[in-house]
Structure to design on (438 residues):
């Protein structure tokens, strides 16, 4: 993560110089962290299901630091665009929900408050899984640009009843998964839905396979969406799409929910938070689902991908960083809040002790009483820590999504779409004066 820090600092320095700002102050200065005088009301924008119930626990006990929740669509579904517009207009909320892959974009735009001067924040570092702290500090000294909230180790959600009824073994390898797809199609369903717009899932699949989209040597970024591992993943899913073994319904839509609720889609390779998505979107299937480890590229392998995971950041311009930090630490470290977040949204904590929460050791009724979090606890230890996000992921995802949508409509291939995304990402980096290796 050290090289990521250097590259981001370089980009920020160039941006600040071009706008007449003080580059040194922009890149390294931490916000003063002192209590405000009098009662404070913080604004917090997120898309976490049931977050109002969690925040109420805080508000009931902290009359002088009240938090007003504003909900919106998921980040790439519109909330990030709103954040950037609000930052530009100077009316951003105090706090925002930002996934790890998007955090560098806000860092490059100088939209985040550095909380390093808040003693309680820096003291909390050891409570978090090491790689998640690297995601919010970018490996910099004296820098904390958000508090880790959750992680997204991936597993295989599957309709246990349908697999058993049709005598189809639960796949443990990707080769077996493709074979199962043929049998599922013969039984009248689709093994899964290929996401044509949320590229984060494809990133997680590539992460598992060993793909590394971004790297830098301390001075310049390298962008590579055509490495051997990513190309392998792209060709694999292209084959399933071409053979019409997967559906391609836009995710997070009523049509998507219906496919799972009616048994048209039998599996979903997703992150731990997907447990809530299926539960809320397919209520008629309660008790029929189970969770298994991700299929492996090599039989007997033990490698997992990561999809998502979030931080809670304090935006530049907040007048109450001290109070914001106190609330965010409670939200993301206290057993009370973590238990409530899991109950409401099945979030998987980023803290080291989070996996030991009583709520995570219980069977889940919707999943037939299975202790599904045991699967994800193991998966979280199998995620490689060296996947680096680029500094313009929102733009990268938008370009890739356009290409993926064309593919499922019959135009081009996933590999071609990724090459286009790489070309446009490099152009975007250069347009922002971010050094890129040729």
């Amino acid at each position: 993560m050290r090289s990521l820090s250097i590259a981001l600092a370089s980009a920020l320095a160039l941006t600040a110089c071009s706008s007449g700002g003080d580059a040194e102050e922009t890149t390294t200065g931490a916000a003063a962290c002192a209590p405000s005088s009098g009662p404070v009301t913080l604004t917090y924008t997120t898309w976490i299901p049931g977050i109002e119930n969690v925040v109420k626990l805080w508000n009931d006990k902290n009359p002088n630091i009240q938090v007003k929740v504003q909900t919106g669509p998921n980040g790439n579904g519109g909330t990030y665009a709103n954040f950037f517009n609000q930052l530009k207009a100077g009316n951003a909320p105090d706090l925002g929900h930002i996934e790890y892959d998007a955090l560098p974009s806000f860092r490059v735009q100088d939209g985040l408050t550095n909380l390093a001067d808040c003693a309680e924040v820096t003291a909390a570092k050891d409570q978090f899984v090491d790689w998640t702290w690297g995601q919010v500090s970018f490996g910099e000294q004296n820098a904390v640009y958000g508090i880790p909230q959750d992680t997204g180790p991936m597993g295989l959600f599957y309709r246990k009843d349908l697999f058993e009824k049709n005598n189809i073994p639960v796949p443990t390898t990707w080769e077996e998964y493709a074979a199962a797809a043929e049998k599922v199609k013969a039984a009248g369903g689709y093994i899964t839905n290929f996401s044509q717009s949320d590229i984060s899932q494809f990133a997680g699949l590539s992460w598992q396979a060993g793909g590394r989209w971004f790297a830098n040597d301390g001075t310049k970024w390298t962008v590579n969406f055509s490495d051997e591992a990513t190309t392998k993943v792209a060709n694999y899913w292209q084959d399933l799409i071409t053979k019409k073994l997967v559906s391609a319904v836009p995710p997070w839509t009523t049509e998507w929910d219906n496919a799972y609720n009616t048994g048209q889609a039998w599996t979903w390779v997703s992150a731990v938070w997907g447990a809530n998505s299926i539960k809320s979107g397919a209520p008629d299937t309660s008790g029929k689902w189970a969770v298994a480890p991700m299929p492996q590229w090599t039989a007997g392998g033990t490698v997992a991908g990561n999809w998502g995971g979030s931080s809670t950041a304090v935006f530049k311009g907040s007048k109450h960083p001290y109070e914001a930090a106190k609330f965010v630490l409670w939200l993301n470290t206290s057993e009370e809040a973590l238990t409530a977040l899991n109950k409401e949204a099945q979030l998987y904590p980023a803290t080291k002790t989070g996996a030991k929460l009583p709520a995570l050791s219980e069977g889940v009724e919707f999943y037939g009483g299975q202790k599904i979090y045991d699967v994800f606890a193991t998966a979280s230890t199998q995620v490689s820590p060296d996947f680096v996000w680029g500094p313009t992921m929102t733009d990268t995802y938008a370009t890739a999504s356009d290409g993926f949508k064309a593919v499922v409509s019959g135009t081009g291939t996933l590999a071609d779409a990724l090459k286009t995304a790489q070309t446009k990402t490099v152009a975007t980096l250069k347009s922002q004066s971010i050094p890129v290796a040729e």
About this structure: Residues 414-431 form the longest helix (18 residues).
